[in-house]
Amino acid sequence: MNISTIVKQGVLIVHVEGEMDMHSAEQFRSSVDTSLETSGAKHIIFNLQGVTFIDSSGVGVILGRYKKVSILGGKLAAVNVKPQVVRILEFSGLLRIMKLFGSESEALDSL
Amino acid sequence: MNISTIVKQGVLIVHVEGEMDMHSAEQFRSSVDTSLETSGAKHIIFNLQGVTFIDSSGVGVILGRYKKVSILGGKLAAVNVKPQVVRILEFSGLLRIMKLFGSESEALDSL
Amino acid sequence: MAINNHIKMNFTSNSENIGIARVTAAAFAAQVDLTLNDIEEIKVALSEAISNAIIHGYGDIVGEVECEMFLSDDILEFIVTDYGVGIADIELARQPSYSSDPERMGLGFVFMDSFMDELSVESALGKGTTVRMIKKITNDKAH
Amino acid sequence: MAINNHIKMNFTSNSENIGIARVTAAAFAAQVDLTLNDIEEIKVALSEAISNAIIHGYGDIVGEVECEMFLSDDILEFIVTDYGVGIADIELARQPSYSSDPERMGLGFVFMDSFMDELSVESALGKGTTVRMIKKITNDKAH
Ligand SMILES: Nc1ncnc2c1ncn2[C@@H]1O[C@H](COP(=O)(O)OP(=O)(O)O)[C@@H](O)[C@H]1O
Ligand SMILES: Nc1ncnc2c1ncn2[C@@H]1O[C@H](COP(=O)(O)OP(=O)(O)O)[C@@H](O)[C@H]1O
């Protein structure tokens, strides 16, 4: 898994590439949490264009980030999500707490 | 493996997609030989654009077609061959009996 | 029902191997003409079963996971076995949102159940767990 | 040298499984940072060893092929075993262009030899054959 993060308009944008499963969950968690702390960002946008697979461990680690930011009123959004990933996010109820957008700028506008 | 054949200017053109190994060798052999017989073509051009893998069984089945057509003065050519496949063809000495071209029309012109 | 193909994988309970087993299962499933969606579902279900073997079955211990794949005339069957701690109450474990680990979602069995046509779980405390999953091959071309 | 990961595959001598084993090996090799070329070479070498087990080891009989993959600190090792007819003269068999089958090219061992860093063959008539192949991990990033 490749993860890179940038901050735009005070929002943490996380680009993820690869498969989100138990194997990559820890790397995902620590990268995102570290960037959250150092940036002081409140909201997170996940750009999942490069994510080809997700299972419940991947969903779990996104939910974990939600729990973290929502305490301080932060929100999650995801962009460029592939159909097979959308399906798992939907199925697991995650779309109730994380909205999907077609582009980063749309997502930024919504936050 | 997917194989389709057409005849252009009396030359049999074979489009191959997939992996050329022992598993697909028999299908390759029988498709090409049947088309050779029904078309009466003398030369063969293999369009290997869709071939992602070849091993010695794949090389062997191409060589077998060479033996068949060369008796009647026929030649082989191959087009759109991926680098990893070129390497195996070269390594196995097959490029001495089968020239590579960038397009079907170039290959046709050479025959 | 004749078995037309069979692969057994054994590997150490290393999370690297979850992705490798998924790739193998996808290639195994591609022998028959399934939809991409079916193959995705198989990958998710297998990923859940193997992740459970590694996380819950073995935890911090390194153990051996077994993953068998069978192709019969009209089904694909996947069997994942670990020789770890076992499950005390299978019915409870299979309940949606139940997890013994507060950090996890309890969705593994839900995914296996929803994405495969049959799911059965056998387990014995201290001996290990076996999960069997069947995907029916309904696509006409597969026959 | 510590073994960092290990996968064993057992499968019936069905030619479908050659491609499945290749995909598994490529995923196994992708754990370390090899070049695409290295991964291609591993795929070809493994394909040759497994094809030989199926064609020469078993021929028309259905048997079991075993394919083990080991990752240590600086090598990838692949071991392919069949319990078929065995090889009478290993030195002769390994000679370029030698094949007991007039339809084949006798390039299998040449490819294994050229594409891997080490190759060793053990065989006993009527008992079977084991081929071990090692690829060194030379890429700096792998360490
Ligand atoms: N292979 C296993 N060995 C031991 N316990 C298991 C195994 N698989 C599942 N379990 C138990 O069943 C529970 C529910 O599993 P699951 O639905 O996959 O959710 P999760 O993995 O998120 O906990 C687990 O929390 C665990 O207690
Ligand atoms: N697993 C095996 N079991 C029995 N014989 C084998 C095995 N592998 C190789 N051989 C023998 O070694 C010969 C050379 O093998 P190889 O170089 O791969 O060429 P080819 O497969 O084209 O014959 C084969 O023709 C066969 O006689």
What features would you describe in this structure?
The complex is a heterotetramer, with 2 copies of chain A (111 residues) and 2 copies of chain C (143 residues). Chain A has a 5-stranded mixed β-sheet with strand order 1-2-3-4-5. Chain A has 4 helices and 5 strands. Chain A has one domain (2-110): STAS domain (Transcription Regulator spoIIAA, 2-Layer Sandwich). Chain A has helices at 22-39, 56-70, 83-91, 104-110, and strands at 2-8, 11-20, 44-54, 76-79, 98-101. The model of chain A has no long low-confidence stretch (mean pLDDT 96). In chain A, helix 1 (22-39) packs parallel to helix 2. By secondary structure, chain A is α/β, with parallel strands linked by helices. By secondary structure, chain C is of the alpha+beta class. Chain C has a single domain (3-136), classed as Histidine kinase-like ATPase, C-terminal domain (Heat Shock Protein 90), CATH 3.30.565.10. In chain C, 35% of the residues lie in helices and 30% in strands. Chain C has helices at residues 16-29, 36-58, 90-94, 108-115, and strands spanning 3-12, 64-72, 75-82, 118-124, 128-136. In chain C, helix 1 runs antiparallel to helix 2 (36-58) and helix 2 (36-58) runs antiparallel to helix 4. Chain C is globular, with a radius of gyration of 15 Å. Classes of the chains: A alpha/beta (111), C alpha+beta (143). Strand 1 of chain C pairs antiparallel with strand 1 (3-12) of chain D. One adenosine-5'-diphosphate (ADP) binds at residues 48, 52-53, 56-57, 82, 84-87, 93, 98-101, 104-109, 129 of chain C.
